[in-house]
């Protein structure tokens, strides 16, 4: 643990103490905190103390802290501080954070705050608000450094000296023509190392990885990650430079998507409140209920298989067979879940190409057959010893051996088909696939049982 | 899609064509490829063509491509090119990539290649090999820029001009004393904006977020993500600067951990071959089989509940009850999976503190009760209509209403308990929790059935 981590733990209590005393120590304490740590500390404060903290922070620090707060605390601040103060803070924010904040407010509130901003800043933020939040345009900032292709290295450094305090990322310097078309890129390092009089066009790299403003944020994240970039320029379809997506926002996208995928995979619709354990019972239940109801109806398929077959066995036999229903359905579900996870990751990392459907299904069939043979033999042995009935042992062992390849094929097939249909393979995959294998495993189990026995002693 | 993506698709075919023709176009084609794209193209080439490509790449480009190849292709290259050529390439690699490569080889191979390196480079790489691969030390590079606190801004820029081509990241400049103790940090931007004669100690920031060399890579990733850093310095316990972890490696860590978690959650032990669909059947089955066998035995618990109760019902009643076993177990599993996913994400994002166990379990109980009441009423209605039996409808509806709160409490409790035991909550969570709820749901179902009826017509 770094010393900073210890401070995080102590922070909230110390802050409350200092706020109550209200002396000069508070200013010093606030000044030395990292905005993200400060955001953690103030989120839980009551309204009066929250206002007291923001009254002591300058607009710049307020802007940084506001950018790190959760949505709920942000809405409180906006309500408590009033439009003039909030306008000052928004003025100091990076344009992408400012647009995110205003996008969360009602159109009236947003309009009032935009009215407080300087014309140029207001125009930039207003423009950002037009992009879909989940696209490159929605997460880009307009604070980047662009230089004209006509400049020299020296002139570019001079330009940077003046622009730097404003630009979120100066690690890449973009070279444009008079109409803002993206021509090339330079690192700050390229500029410093080059002789001062070198024209930019001689040192710029012309192969620039870029994204379109309407590209999905997940794709943008993948590109930044693939090419190890610190930022990626965002262009329109005429290759005009619009903004920049920075690597810190890319990490946020990756984490956000991971959360959403994990919830979706477990049949919870991720929404604003999806993962929020602080909500009321109804807010927590709402994103889960539609799935539970849909899956309930799907489970009737498995039930109806048993219903169809139950007439074919006498009472004692069916009673014995029913003991193994959870084992059969459970193992099929487990096997399918494994296959699904391996294939979903394979698709995500690009190790499996979509056209390899048949190869994947065939491989899962063989893995399932191997796993089925081994677990089937074990189940045969245990059952025969437990129930003292060789025929029952044979039925359940054989059924499991047949069940696993079917389950694994389905588990492998599902994400590929879903992916090909253009749906995120994470959607409800776990509960969905186990519900499907509940059906297939019952069908296999009772078919094997009907073929091998109709009466057991 | 950017134009680069189109090139990726066309690349492999074009490369093969150019290799077969062997003309000057090939050199131009190779020169303009990004190393990661080139790595994708050459991975699948046969040995002779692979060697042909590397013979045409200079050591620098070879180093970049080698760093992006998968483990298997890297081993092939090392085998095919021989230690002298590989030594030249390793010499050109960043030290962290070089250490990663050598760490994959046999000690003899690694020793031979180390022997080909210049003494200084060999010593640095050798040192990196001592750190555990999953720690800050294991993923750091020693190519960073450090300047002495006695320098001025101008001197530091001069130092950088000379060191820059070697350093992986010059975006942060670290300030150290004569004994390499980390004192502060400067951005390149700070240096450029400052008047040339300013002493570094007046402009450096002294609050440096840093990590210890033995800190887990996942923690390092969380810190870089939390503080939006481009790199984090790695220090020993005397605060001496050892190296730097860069944000691109952090993204790799986040993706690697996401893959491992997803596989573990689905009861696949992630190993070197865990997610590798190119392996043989046995290599694919091995990380799954132990879990399938363990879960098979756990499923016997659910089976033995049915076995215990089956004597208490007549044949027809039990046959009817068995129709609803998959529905009962399935919905309990789905409900538990949802709760588990929400709590796992809550723990990961820090929204749920570990001490909140009771609050979480209580909330899940109420969510489960609400979900149970709604799905229970639906099941009651459908069953009564389907089977024309009000008592059976009551039994299954009530059992489901009781099942879901139990399942959701278990789903919420499991990751917290596991986390408190210091185990990664992802471990086999999906299949494990559904196996547990198979047991609890059978217990609830048959208890309710035994209480409400022993005979159904």
What attributes characterize this protein structure?
homodimer; MgtE N-terminal fold; Tetracycline Repressor, domain 2; 457 residues; mainly alpha; disordered N terminus; three-stranded mixed beta sheet; 3 domains; CBS-domain
Topology:
Two copies of one chain form a homodimer.
Chain A: H1 3-21, H2 24-32, H3 35-42, H4 47-56, H5 59-68, H6 71-81, H7 83-92, H8 95-104, H9 107-116, H10 119-128, H11 136-139, E1 144-148, H12 153-163, E2 169-176, E3 182-187, H13 188-193, H14 200-203, E4 211-212, H15 217-226, E5 231-235, E6 241-246, H16 247-265, H17 281-285, H18 289-309, H19 315-323, H20 325-349, H21 357-387, H22 390-420, H23 429-452
Parallel strand pairs in A: 1-2, 4-5
Antiparallel strand pairs in A: 2-3, 5-6
Helix pairs in contact in A: 1-3, 3-5, 5-7, 6-7, 7-9, 8-10, 15-16, 18-23, 20-22, 20-23, 21-22, 22-23
Subunit structure (chains A, B): Homodimer.
Pfam families (chains A, B): CBS, MgtE, MgtE_N
Family (chains A, B): Belongs to the SLC41A transporter family.
């Amino acid at each position: 643990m770094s010393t900073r981590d210890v401070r995080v733990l102590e922070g909230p209590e110390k802050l409350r103490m200092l706020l109550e005393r209200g002396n000069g120590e508070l200013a010093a304490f606030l000044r030395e905190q990292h905005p993200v740590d400060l955001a953690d500390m103030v989120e839980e404060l009551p309204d009066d103390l929250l206002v007291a903290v923001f009254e002591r922070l300058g607009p710049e620090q307020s802007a940084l802290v506001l950018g790190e707060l959760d949505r709920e605390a942000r809405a409180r601040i906006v309500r408590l501080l009033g439009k003039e103060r909030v306008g000052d803070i928004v003025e100091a924010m990076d344009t992408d954070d400012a647009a995110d904040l205003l996008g969360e407010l009602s159109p009236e509130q947003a309009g009032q705050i935009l009215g407080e901003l300087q014309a140029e800043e207001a125009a930039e933020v207003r423009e950002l608000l037009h992009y879909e939040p989940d696209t490159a345009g929605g997460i880009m900032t307009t604070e980047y450094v662009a230089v004209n292709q006509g400049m020299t290295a020296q002139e570019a450094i001079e330009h940077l000296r003046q622009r730097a305090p404003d630009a979120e990322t100066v690690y890449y310097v973009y070279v444009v023509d008079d109409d803002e078309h993206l021509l090339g890129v330079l690192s700050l390092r390229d500029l410093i190392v080059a002789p001062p009089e070198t024209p930019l066009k001689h040192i710029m790299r012309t192969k620039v990885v870029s994204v379109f403003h309407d590209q999905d944020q997940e794709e943008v994240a993948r590109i930044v990650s693939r090419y190890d970039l610190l930022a990626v320029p965002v262009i329109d379809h005429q290759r005009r430079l619009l903004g920049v997506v920075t690597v810190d926002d890319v990490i946020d996208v990756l984490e956000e998507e991971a959360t959403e995928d994990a919830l979706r995979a477990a049949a919870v619709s991720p929404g604003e409140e999806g993962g929020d354990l602080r909500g009321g019972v109804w807010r927590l239940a709402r994103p889960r209920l539609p799935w539970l109801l849909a899956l309930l109806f799907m489970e009737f398929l498995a039930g109806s298989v048993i219903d169809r077959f139950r007439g074919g066995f006498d009472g004692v036999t069916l009673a014995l067979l029913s003991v193994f229903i959870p084992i059969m359905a459970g193992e099929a579900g487990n096997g399918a879940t494994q296959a699904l996870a391996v294939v979903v990751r394979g698709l995500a990392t690009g190790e499996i190409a979509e056209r390899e459907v048949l190869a994947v299904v065939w491989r899962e069939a063989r893995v399932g057959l191997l796993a089925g043979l081994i677990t089937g033999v074990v189940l045969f042995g245990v059952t025969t010893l437990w129930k003292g009935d060789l025929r029952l042992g044979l039925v359940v062992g054989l059924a499991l051996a047949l069940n696993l390849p079917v389950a694994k094929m389905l588990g492998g097939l599902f994400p590929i088909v879903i992916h090909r249909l253009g749906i995120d393979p994470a959607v409800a995959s776990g509960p969905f696939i186990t519900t499907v294998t509940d059906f297939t495993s019952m069908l296999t189990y009772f078919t094997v049982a009907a073929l091998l026995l109709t009466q057991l002693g």
